[in-house]
């Protein structure tokens, strides 16, 4: 099957047989009917010239003209039929429409050129032979007239078919390109939505980790001080007052940090609630939220002494050992915050699981990295457990923080019955 370009492809076929659409079938049947009537009329003089009965000539013309219905299926055959019946002076519409269809379809151009040349030559010869017998007509006039008619019947339909075919192929190419771009845009939108969902998940995890670090440590110290307050309230009122003041300070610090975090969330609330937010806008919103946490004021290594002092005030025996020439150097904010949070969470775990145990916090500044270790000894047998709840997320959060910066995290029990958390964070001091 040879397609004309306008009826290509089998997908979505709605017309009968080889037609893509019903209107194509109606058009071809109508053209074939007109061509059959024309050839039947022209078959009468053909029958007289050939010495055949008129009904035979009419029937022959009907058969020849009706072959035009096959022009989309077999355009080459239709053109060959038109060339074959040209000596009988019939098939004007058949020849013109056949050449147009041949030029518009996707047959090789050499075949189109060959059949066009044959049709031109056949028309030229037939016209020359039929006009030569006219008396009074000069030879030059006969030749000019024959050439003019032959060119007029073959060249315009071929040129029109070439133009329509090229235009149709261009439109199909543009449509394919548009479909391809639409698919690419849809794919990019899906990927952007996936990235936005991933960013939202990461930010939810980060917020949960921050809330855990802030609340767990402060509240754990408050519970320890509250237990001490309950124990000494009747025996040592002065110490009870001191512990109550510490509990109040811890509560105020926790509330301050929680307000800061909630303020960041409220600042990013409006873009998130905006209707019809594009995936890229969602990514930008979450990125802004992450940046607000990272760029805002946060804990640093310089506050470790105060952090350890809070644990000492709660009755824990904590030793801080800082080593390295870079003890006063400033590191990237995310490194200092991670180091602080790791020590904070490790001390919180000591309050929960090892009350009364001796704790050693080691901090070492090295070339290109900072290392820290929090180790506690075994819990005393006579120490009353404070009954602090544990969600089991402390070590997981520490590991996520450290691995997120490309560091090393190791934790586990010691041979003496205690527990050790060791962390190494890669960093470059500012100004180095």
TrEMBL record:
The keyword Repressor belongs to this UniProt entry's keyword annotation: no
Gene3D superfamilies in the record: 1.20.5.1930, Histidine kinase-like ATPase, C-terminal domain
SUPFAM superfamilies the UniProt entry points to: ATPase domain of HSP90 chaperone/DNA topoisomerase II/histidine kinase
Catalytic activity: ATP + protein L-histidine = ADP + protein N-phospho-L-histidine
Gene Ontology cellular component list: membrane
Molecular-function annotations in GO: ATP binding; phosphorelay sensor kinase activity; protein dimerization activity
Pfam families per the UniProt record, alphabetical: HisKA_3 (PF07730)
This protein's name: histidine kinase
Organism field: Streptomyces roseus
């Amino acid at each position: 099957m040879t397609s004309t370009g306008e009826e290509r492809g089998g997908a979505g076929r709605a017309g009968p047989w080889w037609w893509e659409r019903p209107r194509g079938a109606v058009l071809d049947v109508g053209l074939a009917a007109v061509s059959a009537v024309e050839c039947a009329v022209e078959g009468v003089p053909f029958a007289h010239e050939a010495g055949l009965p008129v009904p035979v000539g009419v029937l022959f013309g009907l058969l020849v003209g009706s072959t035009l219905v096959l022009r989309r299926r077999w355009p080459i055959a239709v053109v060959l039929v038109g060339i074959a019946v040209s000596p009988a002076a019939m098939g004007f519409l058949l020849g013109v429409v056949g050449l147009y269809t041949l030029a518009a379809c996707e047959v090789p151009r050499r075949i189109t050129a060959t059949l066009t040349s044959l049709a031109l030559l056949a028309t030229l010869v037939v016209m020359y032979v039929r006009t030569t017998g006219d008396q009074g007509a000069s030879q030059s006039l006969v030749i000019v007239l024959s050439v003019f008619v032959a060119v007029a019947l073959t060249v315009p339909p071929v040129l029109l078919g070439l133009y329509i075919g090229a235009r149709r192929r261009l439109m199909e190419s543009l449509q394919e390109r548009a479909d391809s771009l639409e698919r690419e845009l849809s794919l990019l939108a899906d990927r952007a939505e996936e990235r936005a969902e991933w960013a939202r998940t990461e930010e939810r995890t980060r917020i949960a980790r921050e809330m855990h670090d802030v609340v767990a440590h402060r509240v754990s110290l408050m519970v320890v001080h509250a237990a001490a307050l309950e124990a000494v309230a009747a025996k040592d009122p002065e110490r009870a007052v001191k512990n109550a003041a510490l509990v109040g300070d811890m509560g105020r610090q926790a509330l301050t940090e929680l307000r800061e975090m909630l303020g960041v969330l409220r600042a990013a609330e409006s873009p998130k609630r905006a209707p019809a937010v594009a995936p890229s806008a969602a990514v930008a919103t979450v990125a802004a939220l992450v940046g607000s946490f990272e760029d805002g004021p946060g804990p640093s290594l310089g506050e470790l002494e105060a952090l350890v002092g809070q644990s000492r005030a709660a009755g824990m025996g904590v030793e801080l050992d800082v080593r390295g020439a870079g003890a006063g150097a400033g590191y990237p904010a995310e490194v200092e915050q991670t180091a602080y949070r790791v020590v904070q969470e490790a001390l919180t775990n000591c309050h929960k699981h090892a009350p009364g145990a001796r704790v050693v916090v080691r901090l070492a500044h090295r070339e290109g990295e900072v290392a820290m270790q929090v180790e506690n000894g075994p819990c005393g047998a006579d120490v009353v457990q404070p009954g602090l709840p544990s969600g089991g997320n402390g070590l997981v959060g520490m590991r996520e923080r450290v691995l997120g910066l490309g560091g090393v995290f190791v934790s586990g029990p010691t041979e003496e019955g205690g527990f050790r958390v060791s962390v190494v964070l890669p960093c470059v001091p500012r100004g180095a």
